[in-house]
Amino acid sequence: MKEYKLIKNDELIEIVDMEDFNSNDLDTLLHKVLHHVKMITNCDAGSIYLKDGNCLQFSIFQNDSFSYEKIFNNQKPIKNMKFPIKKDTGTIAIEAYLQSKIIMIDNIYEDANYDFNSAKEFDKKFNYKTQSILTAPLIDNLNNETIGILQLINKKENGKIIPFTHSDQEFISLSSYFIVLSIINAKNNIEELKQNNLELEKKIELRTKELLETQIKLQEQAYRDPLTNLYNRRHFDEINGSLFSMSKRGNNPLAVLMIDIDCFKSVNDTFGHHIGDIVIKSLSNILMNTIRQSDIAIRYGGEEFLLLLTNTNKSNAHVVAEKIRRHAENTTVKIEKHSDLQFTISLGLAVIKVEDEDITAAIEEADKALYMAKESGKNKVVSI
Fold it and tell me: Helices (DSSP H) in the chain: which residue ranges?
């Protein structure tokens, strides 16, 4: 591992390669950096402020005189502290930022050059005694920009608080370069991580939307008859209860039409199932072009169809049924180049009654009416 060394008297102060401080979490990085610098300079406490817009925002602090619990409990409220970057505030952190230089104070209680009210309030609140301070700007030399402030408090020797030294100043001047690189790297990593997460969220959102659309399509397909694209018997079984309840609750009539293609077996036997399918599709088109959007058309089984006409009484339902019957009667299906096939339908009509407990009774009555229509000559509408 690459090493950097600063001579301090006859000793060596070792600055480890800043790879030790690589982190995608800015708070973790800042705590590592501050702990390392405090250990090298042998000081009791320290803090780091980072620039946020036109302010310096308190980011973290460490104090070896406090318990971890005390530091943890006070870290969050202190993080909300912001100091506007402007001239003549008298605040040592702001002055170090504006002057781009390290400022060392031997004893804040004997210094009249700076405003230490916040430090003194801190001391009073937490029964602490701030004395010597070293405040250094964290300068990004590549962009000629100060990104924050490092502050060290109460240098110690043999258990006593002493002033910070010129060697400490040299050490901070040297190490601040690597600290700034680490912070910038962490911020870039965090920004890249945020961007990656944002892109991932967009992909997940898009994929979720696609899956939902696929699910809706599959569900729709499960409820649709593949030949006619009308709703199938399964869909009817799932909605008839709620449809009946809505009709009863709103006191709105619900008409039921059972429809059957006349002589359909003969069509299949004579012309084949392919022509039979064309006839079924022709009728389904007639139904869809006749009913309203609020009505429901269902392929009930084989050549049999079911229409549910919402908010429709027996008289109006009969008009709709006759319209469908006439339309079918006048429709021709081409079976060969010069041959056309005409077909007719029979219809049974019923309307749910006040005493009905579900739609079953109306379905049975419409089925009976359909049977009567077929028995009495076909191509007609019969109502019960």
Answer: 26-41, 68-79, 92-99, 117-126, 166-222, 233-249, 264-271, 273-290, 314-329, 360-375
